[in-house]
Write a structure and sequence with these properties.
heterodimer, A: mainly alpha, Arc Repressor Mutant, subunit A, B: Rossmann fold, seven-stranded mixed β-sheet, 5 helices, globular
Amino acid sequence: MSAGPGRRLIPAYLVTGGRTRPTGPALDRLAVLVRTDTALAPDTGSEQRRLCELLEPGALTVVECAAHLDLPVSATVFLATDLAASGHLHTRPPIPSAGGTDRSLVERLLVGLRSLH
Amino acid sequence: MDSAPSTDRTGIGYLPPAAQTLMKLVVTGPFGVGKTTLIRTLSEIPTLHTEEAMTQSSTRLDDTAGLPDKTTTTVAVDFGRLTVQDDLVLYMFGTPGQERFLPLWEDIARGALGALVLVDTRRLGDSFAVMDMVEEQGLPYAVAVNRFPDAPAHTDEVLRKHLDLHPDTPLLQCDARERRGSIDALIALAEHVLTRLPQPQDPS
């Protein structure tokens, strides 16, 4: 862990067209983003296009997309929220609503960790 | 799509299609304690990082006295990913333990199972603030001593006393460069998390 190197950070206000709030509930940083078959419009912004292109081969979480695109997590959430609203991405929460109790999840985590030994 | 993570042609490490449940935990501790090393040891994808911006009033900053009131700094948050069962993926976020990172900390810790607090026996005092923050967040945690070659070796009893650990808080020693011991640390944390969750209803 170290303070970030001095590389370019795109200001969030440029990525988001000056808006300060997403149009829907904020996505979790572990929300899963999946590209749909909907084609991008010719005038799609370059950052939106980069995110969609990243997701063409497979699904990733918001935070992984942020890391690969060198964008802040908050800006990635904006982009993904817009692209989900326009039908270009599907989003799903990190824990499915029918995913069982916290306890059963942690029990399964333990079984999995022990099997990695 | 290839079901094995991080072996796709792109090197991106896309999520396996079966991965439906994503859990996270926080790996925390003072700078240089080995958070990123432990994450790198366990992660199935090359460790990634995000640059997280922090805008704060200067009153919360402890080391930028004299700077203008509105201060934006960035800090790199490293993270990795470990598929523990086909559909169950664990994300590990290396989070700085300093008080001035509290807003970032809260954001990352939200929804986390718990925290693994890494400790360096050469700098035990640096860990107090970290454990205070974890406790304030109400996150269950385990303490893992990352053994450095030149670090003093203490018995668990001495360490518990110095770190003022609750008797229930797991304490173990590991080498963040070694997979087995690092997994043991996660197991100790997960077992501890389980003891803090409500028992299932007695089916009587």
